[in-house]
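Project outcomes to date are best conveyed with an example. Our students and postdoctoral researchers have been running inverse folding experiments weekly, and each run begins with a structure described purely in tokens. The record below, which covers 524 residues, was selected by the lab manager from last quarter's runs and is presented without edits.
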């Protein structure tokens, strides 16, 4: 974010040539007064809470501390969680409480679930992008979408259909990488994974072939870029106390956000309109495979509630769930197996054994060998993906809001209106949860006699837990295993710069900053 200080200073200096000194002094006085008021709003509540003797979570700073550490926010949170399993920042209106304590996480996600909703503060910040999608609603709307989504993910038709799509789109990705390898080109694997998962979720979710992986569809590329930028800009609102003013004036980051959301909306509304036209020209089948078709069928019985705006919000929820989570996790997975080449080779050997593929197996033939039975045998690959999610969870922090005053299991008091969030990213690095080797990438921690053993969702929070646990968990693992198995079987990957440590871009999902640049080599 660019500082407005320099242009403002230049403007005042130039203005001094044309207006009287007394007017300039008045403007400077007004700006100084506004600054003092803003500082008072931030620091007076902070000092009051700092001196409080009430048994509340430890105060670690005003909310502006997050602004200062924004570029490395999750690592900053990790350092705080090592000192205090539960802590809080102070805003002008309430406390923002964060926890890395599994007992507390279980309490807010399950035991006292009704008291910890998304809340008006979080919903208000996220509404422009996520609207009334399942990630940004409470109550009846959440239950309605949860019920519909739960039904969709449980159907055999969708499972079979999605598996076919994952295989075919990953085959396209493998062929794309093979071409890049033949041309001895460096590949940005994160970008390729994002495009491939976007293609898959649009086919599975909406029944349309985008073919973003080819790079020829400019509209889908604009949508993807606008959606990712909106993701980051909306998350920035959590530390930008002035965002409502900037939104009202349509300036700065809020003006950029508005432009990006317009691109997103135009793309999604056109998608819904095209789907309606397509379905009018076809006989409606109750076993229609893609998710949007099923929702459109549902909307015919409840058109007032399930209008195009509501369908837009639901659709974007599936996009972020189907594109960002899988692609980001796989990006960090390939980064980690490049850092640990012996693990990469072990996975490749397991995939070869499980699929019974040989040196003569083509890319298309290999897809047919990735049966559910073969995937179920890949315990080490599953463990490596879980270990990636432990250290690099797709959603690094997830916030709730307290509906009423409460007392956490450790005796700390929560007030009505407090934000209460669990810290998935720091939790993976806590020795008091995972032992002394918590920060080491070690898939073996998930295996017992070679068989994958899951952990409590309140210790391993990558898919949340309790009533809002991710419905697409098995869906995501299946997609990631297919994609990882495909690529590791056919290619060896090496980092372009082995000495460079990857960093994330601070947003709702754990996006690797500047991409993942790799050398790839044919394995066979």
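After processing, the design step wrote out the following sequence:
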């Amino acid at each position: 974010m660019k500082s407005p200080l320099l242009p403002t200073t230049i403007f005042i200096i130039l203005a001094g040539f044309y207006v009287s000194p007394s007017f300039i002094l008045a403007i400077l006085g007004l700006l100084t007064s506004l600054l003092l008021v803003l500082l008072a709003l931030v620091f007076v509540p902070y000092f009051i809470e700092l001196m409080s003797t009430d048994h509340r979570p430890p105060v670690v700073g005003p909310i502006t501390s997050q602004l200062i550490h924004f570029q490395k926010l999750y690592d900053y949170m990790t350092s705080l969680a090592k000192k205090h399993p539960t802590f809080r920042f102070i805003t002008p209106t309430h406390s923002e409480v964060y926890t890395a304590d599994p007992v507390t996480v279980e309490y807010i996600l399950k035991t006292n679930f009704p008291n910890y909703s998304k809340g008006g503060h979080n919903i208000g910040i996220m509404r422009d992008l996520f609207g009334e999608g399942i990630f940004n609603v409470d109550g009846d709307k959440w239950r309605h979408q949860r019920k519909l989504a739960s039904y969709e993910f449980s159907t055999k038709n969708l499972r079979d259909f999605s598996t076919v799509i994952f295989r075919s789109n990953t085959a396209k990705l493998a062929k794309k990488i093979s071409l890049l390898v033949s041309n001895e080109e460096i590949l940005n694997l994160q970008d390729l994974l994002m495009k491939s998962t976007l293609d898959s979720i649009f086919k599975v979710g909406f029944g349309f072939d985008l073919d973003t992986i080819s790079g020829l569809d400019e509209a889908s590329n604009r949508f993807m870029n606008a959606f990712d930028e909106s993701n980051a800009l909306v998350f920035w609102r959590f530390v930008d106390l002035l965002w409502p003013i900037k939104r009202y004036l349509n300036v700065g980051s809020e003006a950029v956000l508005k432009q990006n959301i317009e691109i997103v909306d135009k793309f999604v509304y056109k998608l819904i309109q095209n789907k309606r036209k397509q379905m009018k020209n076809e006989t409606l089948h109750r076993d229609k495979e893609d998710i949007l078709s099923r929702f459109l069928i549902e909307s015919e019985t409840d058109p007032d509630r399930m209008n195009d705006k509501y369908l837009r919000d639901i659709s974007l929820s599936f996009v972020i769930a189907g594109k960002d989570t899988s692609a980001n996790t796989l990006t960090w997975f390939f980064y980690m197996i490049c850092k640990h080449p012996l693990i990469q080779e072990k996975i490749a050997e397991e995939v070869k054994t499980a699929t019974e593929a040989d040196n003569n197996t083509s890319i298309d033939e290999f897809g047919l060998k990735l049966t559910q039975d073969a995937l179920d045998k890949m315990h080490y690959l599953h463990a490596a993906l879980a270990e990636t999610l432990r250290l690099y969870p797709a959603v690094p922090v997830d916030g709730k809001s307290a509906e009423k005053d409460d007392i956490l299991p450790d005796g700390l008091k929560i007030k009505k209106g407090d934000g209460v969030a669990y810290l998935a990213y720091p939790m993976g690095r806590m020795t008091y949860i995972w032992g002394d080797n918590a920060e080491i990438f070690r898939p073996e921690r998930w295996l017992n006699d070679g068989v994958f053993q899951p952990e409590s969702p309140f210790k391993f929070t990558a898919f949340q837990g309790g009533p809002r646990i991710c419905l697409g968990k098995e869906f995501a693992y299946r997609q990631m295993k297919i994609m990882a198995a495909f690529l590791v079987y056919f290619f060896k990957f090496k980092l372009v710069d082995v000495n460079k440590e990857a960093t994330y871009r601070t947003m709702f999902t754990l996006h690797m900053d500047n991409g993942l640049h790799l050398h790839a080599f044919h394995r066979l």
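DSSP finds 21 helices and 15 strands in the chain. The radius of gyration is 25 Å. The training component of this project remains on track.
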